[in-house]
Amino acid sequence: MIQYWHKTIKSKKFKQLDSHKAGSWIYVEDPTDAEQQILTDTFKIDEGMLEDALDIDEVPRFETEDNIHYVFTRFPLTDTNLQVVTVPILIAISGSYIMTISLRPIPRLEKIMNSTEANTTQRVKLLLNIIDHIVDDYERHLTAISKQIISVRNRLRVEQVSNKDFIGFVTIEDELNDFMSALVPTNTLLKRLMTGRHIKLFEEDIELIEDLLLSNEQSIESAKSNIKTIVSIREAYSTISTNNLNQVIRLLTSLTVVLTVPTIIASLYGMNVDLPFQNEPGAFVIVISSTIIVSSILILIFRKNKWL
After folding, report:
1. Would you say 14 and 113 are in contact if contact means Cβ atoms under 8 Å apart?
2. Average pLDDT, consecutive stretches of 10 residues, N- to C-terminus, the chain (308 residues)
3. Which of 104, 202, 276, 299 places its Cα 20 to 30 Å from the Cα of 28?
4. Domains within the chain, CATH numbers bracketed
């Protein structure tokens, strides 16, 4: 899909055009082969850059080719399996247009178009506006992940964590690592843009990039913190489980020792041989009493050592 949008500083809202005109935003989403041909022939998009833009594993970076600046980054979205993943987006800037190429819809597209600050004639500002909304989307997802982790951590205090929670942690950890692989290169990308050597920037643009760098770094720290929290919860639960298992084994071992004494005595007196007290009238009482005394002594010893 290829759409053409136009908005000037004086315009109140974005206007969709039937064809391209200077100063417009060319919005490309999951282009067909024919549309890819239009991009390379009409708008001189480098074929290699176009292939990279449609590569699901492409990492954020900045390049310039034939006076066209290519800004690669990634944005988060929820896929059909309700898992948060990141997908690549290419933002190309030339002297007459700004173009976005992605496999999936840009997050908060409507909000970008409803923004009073965004317009297609100020291409660098629109570029930064798009990146700003992408960074905000990362923050939104990270906040939701943090709440989910805190919920599990609170339940850990009363030992109500299930295996399902830890399976969920594996998914969350994958999401956070995916975020990190996108956010860290984006930081490098923003620092390159801020130098102003590749794209001419105004003071307002530099201030916006500084804000984006700060927000992006906060997202990186949030992702790192969440990963550390997951690891801590996993280690704490492992420690608790090991301790509980040790207590159960200790209890069962102590009970086994206590029950072994009457078992041995009963086995001895079950043999058809001459045994002590076998002719005594109170033999049964003596044997039972001895068994109870020995077992009681063992129980007292185990309880004193907190094995029971």
Report:
1. yes
2. 83 80 86 88 86 86 85 82 82 87 79 72 84 87 86 70 71 84 86 79 82 89 87 78 82 82 77 70 76 82 75
3. 202
4. 2-241 (3.30.460.20), 246-304 (1.20.58)
